[in-house]
Amino acid sequence: MVGNHRDTSTTRRRALAVTGGTVAAGGLAVAGYQAAFADDATTTTADATASASAISTSSECMTLMSNVTEGPYYLDGALVRKDITEGKSGVPLTLRLTVVDATDGCTPVKGAAVEIWHCDAWGYYSGYTTANPGGSAPAESEDGSTANDQTYLRGYQIANANGVVKFETIFPGWYTPRTCHIHLKVHTGGQKEDGTYEGGKVNYTGQLFFADDIAEEIFTLEPYSQHSGSYTTLDNDMVYDGGGASSGLLTLKAVHKKNPSKGYKGSLTLGVDPDAENTGAGSGGGGEGGTPPSDAPTGTPPSDSASPSASASS
Question: What is the pTM of this model?
Answer without folding.
Answer: 0.76
